[in-house]
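We emphasize that the prediction below concerns an isolated chain of 223 residues; any contacts that depend on oligomerization or on bound cofactors are therefore not represented. The input was used exactly as deposited, without trimming of termini.
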Amino acid sequence: MFRIREYSLALFDLDGTLADTHQLIFDSFNFILRKYRSTEMTPREILSYFGPPEEICIVNMIGADNFDSVWKDFIEYYSSHLNETMVFGGVKELLSELKSAGKLIGVFTAKGSKTAEITLGYHGLRAYFDIVVTGSHVKNHKPHPEGIDVALRKLGIDASDTIVIGDSPSDYKAAAAAGTGFVAVTYDTVSRNRFDSIDCVKAASVEELHRLLSREGDRVQQG
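Result of the prediction step, given as a token string:
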């Protein structure tokens, strides 16, 4: 078991955990699918491609032809519609409290470096984090634990002293493989039912996550 108050590093996923961005991601992929393949995909179909960063997802979806143009269009659409996304209420207050308590805070996201940088910058989140590990920084993507291992190595923190917070089973599997603690967040509409069959600690709201990460004596199941 992992005692909440004993962790030194909190490692957060980005999409669906810190920010409500899934709809924009779906819209961005469908924008290029319509333009270059005259088709669309459902959110479930798009989610099936998740794991590697967007560049690889694009190639897997529509091929490598005209990649530079496709990627440019994807980034332009994503960037110009970030006003349709938001940081979940209470997240910035939680991050501020963790910083004040002397915790290290990081991001471990499957997003590529470009979209992660754009998203964190637009929402004023980057300054909170001691490290950001993206899908562009690893060879093995979620649910492989390489991204967590990179963060631990660079910050000099043990897995047993780390808690991972994410909204997908791939986050859970990565944390379990790395040997860290884990909390599943289920307040995003996309992730609400993802953990129904997984026995782990869950936070159905940012307020509940705040209590879990801040309250003396709470425990999180070891991954």
